[in-house]
């Protein structure tokens, strides 16, 4: 009997161990329930093909509408990670130098953008294991003979702001005398500076340099020998519990060949360069708008968002500006002081700074995860309200005093008098100024591209990054802005004529 019990216990123990071995990974990897949510938010900078970029020709279709879709090497890895860990994946975007602030503000669960762990970055965020090794290259005009770091002596060298290439370039500049560094926000801007002759070379990652060299035959690149290990890793907010399960899945992807297949898929081909663009350049701008014809619908899809943003900002800004102007003319000193101080602050600080503070600080101060569009509308409302308040105040004070005196003598309440008598006349007088403010908001809406809103300018920059070109998409975006402004101007002129007819 004891032998039978011993055998049963042994069989039971072996079965438990076997089941644990077989199912241990899946139980370990299903981390969604332990975090209390089923969706992970990834933030990236989708202007860095083949790591991450917009599919300007395809995209998902929802209710008959084609949606913008970010694709690339990092995106495929993120989707695999989310699937293995039992999460849904949500992707948001930002400029590269905004990724770490977004993680620090807990706006995203992790970031992927070909980011290399460095001691400076590791002080502020956590990293996974390295999932891809890349090399730096020197990109320069063909025939420049800039092959090694020492050849950059006395040269102007461009780098992308906030990247490992910028840090490596600074180290090279400490060893090689005479190097002048120029930091820019995006790699396409760096490459364009080379073609414009403003810089002599750039330090760019090899996979990206390959695409630019294929699309621009007047450029060449040479790999810089690596002195220390570097590569791409996933970034997390400090203390994130995701690092350990992510590392386990990444190691599995390395061991079973999944990562190797993704590397072959994305790096063995040029994902975006147009063969037609591989003809020798002839000098000048060398414009060829046929290269962006397939992507024009993608750029045009930025128009509704730009118009929505402008309409909301102008409407709310007009309301807020009217309130501020009334506070300034009421004659109540504390309210007048507050309104004047508010106007001084928002007129005296850069709009881009206000936008960054609202977008990144709001989640930390209030706990509300404000969207990029909401942050843009709020910032522009607060800013335009400050400017409009002065315009509206001047319009109100320009109305003949006899109008208010007559209304008051008839016993009309102050607020009703302002609403029915003074403000309509003031708005008619300041209409041209309000139209100018609206046009300014329409053009300034391009600033929201810095926090990931894909409006007209951002759409054009995305197409340029995918095609490894610069001027054509930006010139087309400029044409769109011009048509919108002219349409707005004509509409305002017609409205002004209509209002004058009623006088």
Word description of this protein:
This protein has 503 residues and is α/β, with parallel strands linked by helices. The protein contains 20 helices and 15 strands. The protein has helices at 2-29, 32-35, 73-85, 99-104, 119-122, 164-175, 187-196, 206-215, 243-255, 258-267, 296-300, 303-329, 333-348, 351-366, 372-398, 401-409, 414-429, 431-444, 456-467, 471-501; strands at residues 39-44, 47-48, 52-54, 61-62, 65-66, 70-71, 88-93, 110-111, 125-127, 136-141, 156-160, 180-184, 201-205, 219-223, 235-237. The chain has a five-stranded mixed sheet, with helices on both faces. A three-stranded parallel sheet has the order 7-1-8. The chain has a three-stranded antiparallel sheet with strand order 2-3-6, sandwiched between helices. α6 links the parallel β11 and β12. The longest helix is centred in the C-terminal third of the chain and has 31 residues, at 471-501. The radius of gyration is 29 Å and the shape is elongated. Residues 13-29, 60-66 and 270-282 have low confidence and may be disordered.
Largest sheet report: 5 strands, mixed
Ends apart, CA distance between termini: 111 Å
Q: Globular, elongated, flat, extended or rod-shaped: what is the shape?
A: elongated
Strand content: 5-15%
Mean pLDDT: 81
What class, by secondary structure content?
alpha/beta
Q: What is the number of helical segments per DSSP (H or I, 4+ residues)?
A: 20
User: Can you list the strand order of the major beta sheet?
Assistant: 12-11-13-10-14
Radius of gyration: 29 Å
**How many strand units?**
15
What share of residues is helical?
55-70%
Catalogue the unreliable spans: 13-29, 60-66, 270-282
């Amino acid at each position: 009997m004891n032998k039978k019990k011993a055998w049963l216990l042994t069989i039971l123990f072996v079965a438990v161990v076997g089941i644990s071995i077989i199912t241990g990974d899946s139980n370990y990897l299903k981390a969604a329930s332990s975090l209390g949510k089923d969706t992970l938010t990834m933030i990236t900078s989708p202007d860095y093909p083949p790591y991450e970029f917009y599919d300007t020709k395809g995209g998902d279709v929802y209710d008959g509408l084609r949606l913008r879709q970010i694709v690339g090497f990092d995106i495929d890895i993120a989707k695999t990670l989310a699937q293995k860990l039992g999460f849904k994946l949500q992707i948001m975007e930002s400029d590269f130098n905004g990724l770490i602030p977004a993680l620090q503000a807990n706006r995203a669960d992790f970031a992927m953008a070909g980011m290399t762990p460095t001691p400076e970055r590791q002080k502020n965020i956590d990293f996974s294991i390295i999932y891809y090794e890349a090399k730096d290259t020197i990109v320069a005009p063909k025939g420049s003979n800039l092959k090694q770091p020492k050849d950059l002596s006395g040269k102007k060298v461009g780098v992308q702001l906030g990247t490992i290439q910028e840090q490596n370039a600074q180290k090279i500049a400490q060893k090689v005398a005479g190097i002048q560094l120029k930091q820019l926000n995006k790699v396409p801007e760096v490459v364009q500076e080379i073609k414009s002759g403003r810089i002599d070379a750039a330090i760019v990652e090899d996979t990206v340099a390959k695409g630019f060299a294929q699309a621009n035959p007047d450029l060449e690149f040479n790999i810089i020998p690596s002195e220390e290990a570097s590569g791409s890793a996933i970034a997390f907010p400090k203390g994130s519990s995701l690092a350990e399960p992510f590392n386990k899945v990444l190691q599995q992807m390395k061991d079973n060949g999944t990562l190797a297949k993704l590397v072959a898929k994305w790096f063995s081909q040029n994902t975006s360069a147009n063969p037609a663009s591989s003809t020798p350049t002839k000098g000048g701008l060398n414009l060829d708008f046929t290269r962006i014809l397939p992507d024009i619908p993608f750029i045009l899809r930025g128009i509704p968002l730009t118009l929505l943003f402008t309409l909301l900002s102008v409407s709310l800004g007009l309301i807020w500006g009217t309130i501020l102007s009334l506070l300034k003319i009421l004659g109540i000193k504390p309210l007048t002081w507050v309104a004047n101080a508010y106007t001084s602050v928002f007129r005296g600080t850069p709009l881009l700074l206000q936008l960054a503070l609202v977008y990144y600080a709001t989640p930390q101060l209030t706990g509300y995860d404000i969207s990029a569009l909401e942050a843009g509308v709020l910032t522009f409302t607060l800013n335009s309200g400050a400017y409009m308040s002065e315009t509206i105040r001047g319009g109100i004070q320009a109305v003949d005093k006899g109008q208010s005196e007559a209304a008051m003598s008839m016993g009309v309440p102050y607020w009703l008098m302002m609403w029915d008598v003074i403000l309509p006349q003031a708005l008619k007088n300041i209409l041209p100024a309000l139209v100018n403010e609206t046009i300014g908001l329409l053009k300034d809406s391009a600033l929201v591209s810095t926090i990931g809103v894909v409006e007209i300018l951002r759409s054009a920059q995305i197409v340029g990054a995918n095609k490894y070109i610069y001027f054509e998409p930006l010139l087309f975006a400029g044409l769109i802005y011009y048509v919108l402004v002219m349409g707005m101007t004509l509409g305002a002129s017609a409205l002004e004529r209509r209002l004058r007819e009623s006088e």
